[in-house]
Amino acid sequence: MKDLTALEKKINSELTTKINDSKVSHNQIYLKIDHEDLLDVVTFLKTNNDTKFKQLTDITAVDYPEKSKRFKMVYLFLSHQFNQRIILSFFINENELVSSLIKIFPSANWMEREVFDMYGIKFKDHPDLRRILTDYNFEGFPLRKDFPLTGNKEVRYSEEEKKVIYESVKLEQNYRNFDYESPWEGTKYIKEQTKKD
Predict the structure, then answer these.
(1) 4-143, CATH topology level
(2) Phi, psi angle pair for 76, to nearest 5°
(3) Exposure winner among 85, 113, 157, 176, fewest CB in 10 A?
């Protein structure tokens, strides 16, 4: 189906109870669902002749630590035949399991491992859920908004000691403070220095 508005209506009519909200924006369809309906909705999007979203482009998450349902899961699908995109999303609690899409899209394997590694979100029925971007002994989840900037351990190879060593992470804080003044007028610390001289 080439018309996005008609496609949105078709999806809503076929999946009436499973779609909480839908809209067409930026030449894409945005669908909001409940996480229990993920497998049914994705199966429909892939197999229906009017949709044919046969490629899972990405799986990611967004962290909202102040909300009761902390994480927003986001799935991006592409239909090569119609050159259309759908963005599917839903909210989950911190320790809630999400259904794995590996049986529908085998490419979901690495994407789900990345979400697990970065956010700590676990996937039900995933055959090999382990870290993919960080070290196996790494503690914490780097893309959570409550992840500390300092104090964690990182791994690196030391040329002096000729071995792999663990050391505390030290992140530079030099560029955190801005004075937002025009460079032609000079910054406050330069003004104060010139007044003293």
Answers:
(1) Beta Polymerase; domain 2 (3.30.460)
(2) -115, 125
(3) 176
pLDDT per residue as tens digits for the range 2-36: 788 999 999 999 998 999 999 999 999 999 999 99
Q: How high is the pLDDT of residue 22?
A: 94
Separation of alpha carbons 96 and 94, rounded Å: 6
In this prediction the pTM is: 0.78
Between the two ends of the chain, the Cα-to-Cα distance in Å is 74
Closest CA to 155 of 146, 163, 147, 144: 163
pLDDT of 75 reads: 98
Instruction: Tell me if residue 9 falls in helix, strand or coil.
Output: helix
Residues recorded for the chain: 197
DSSP, res 55: E
Give DSSP secondary structure letters for 137-193.
Answer: T--S-TTSTT--SSS-EEEEEETTTTEEEEEE-----TTS------TTT--HHHHHH
Task: Write down the domain spans for the chain.
Answer: 4-143
Whole-angstrom distance, CA of residue 190 vs CA of residue 140? 41
